Amino acid sequence: MNYVTLNDGHRIPQVGYGVYMMNGEEIARMVPKAVGAGYRHFDTANAYFNEVALGRALRDSGVPREELFVTSKLFPQSYPYDQCGPDIDATLERLGTDYLDLLLLHQPYGAYTEAWRALEDAVAAGKVRSIGLSNFPVHKTVEVMEVATIKPAVLQVEINPYWNQHELKERFAGMGLGDVTLEGWYPFGHGDKGLMEEPTLVEIARAHGVSVAQVIVRWALQEGDVVFPKTLSPEHLRQNIDVFGFELSDDEMARVNAIPQHAYYVVPEDAPDFVLAHNDYSKQI
Ligand SMILES: NC(=O)c1ccc[n+]([C@@H]2O[C@H](COP(=O)([O-])OP(=O)(O)OC[C@H]3O[C@@H](n4cnc5c(N)ncnc54)[C@H](OP(=O)(O)O)[C@@H]3O)[C@@H](O)[C@H]2O)c1
What we know:
- The protein is α/β, with parallel strands linked by helices.
- It has one domain: NADP-dependent oxidoreductase domain (TIM Barrel).
- It is built from twelve helices and ten strands.
- The protein has helices spanning 24-37, 51-61, 81-95, 112-124, 138-147, 166-174, 193-196, 199-208, 212-222, 234-241, 250-257, 273-277; strands spanning 3-5, 11-13, 17-18, 41-43, 69-74, 100-105, 128-134, 154-158, 181-185, 226-227.
- The protein has an eight-stranded parallel sheet. A two-stranded antiparallel sheet has the order 1-2.
- Strand 6 (100-105), helix 4 (112-124) and strand 7 form a beta-alpha-beta unit.
- Residues 18-20, 43, 106, 134-135, 156, 185-191, 196, 211, 213, 228-233, 236, 239-240 line the site of NADP nicotinamide-adenine-dinucleotide phosphate.
């Protein structure tokens, strides 16, 4: 496994397993396989409603807690300062752990500057090691930076060969945020056939005798990003972490980075309905 050292000194496994939209049965079936295949980094959120199931599966795996890297995220309903502390404690309780490796503000809406102060308090209390943002555009990241005494360690955003985030990285570098690690969601475009059959990726995959998925994960690693593909297939699970036996050349990286760019999802300025709708985190599985 490759690790990235975050700007706060903590190390994160560069490939993880994202458990978005997985129910309790799927978590119970897949997480032991993931641990067996070598995954040690798991990405969930209070709005995925599966923290209890993930915590149980990780405890049952027998892998010592300190060998695991667990990320969760808070949805905006948790952001008001007085709500944030209790909701962090509830996430810890659901996961059955006394600390999170990484906690993110999931969406850039509501009282996010208050929430950032609460995240910093959780770091001081030893409940969280690293803190970061998810889906925040530059201007809202700047608002957080204005109240921050701890810089975000990561920003989790869409990253795939159709949306490589080079522009964002350049802007961050120009603002003194070049040491913020980017984590990529939708590495496979949420399973988009167009991406998985993109001719440039197919050619590179053939040249290395690997799958397009493996090329995408390898590309993300060489971009310096952290990635956690989601899959319900044991074969894909194994493949997606089997990316350390080959390397993309500079020319291959340049070819991937020359693919025309478009995002799958543009984060709206104002909270969309699906964000406003999530509010009862007691309904966890
Ligand atoms: N912060 C955010 O707002 C946010 C948003 C979205 C996602 N995320 C995080 O990012 C993670 C990944 O995102 P995602 O699940 O939406 O999309 P994804 O990983 O891009 O795509 C998942 C799809 O790719 C397919 N797939 C996986 N491995 C494959 C392989 N080796 N070959 C071919 N197809 C493969 C899966 O099908 P099979 O099951 O058949 O393999 C599934 O349909 C989530 O679990 C979550 O942790 C975060």
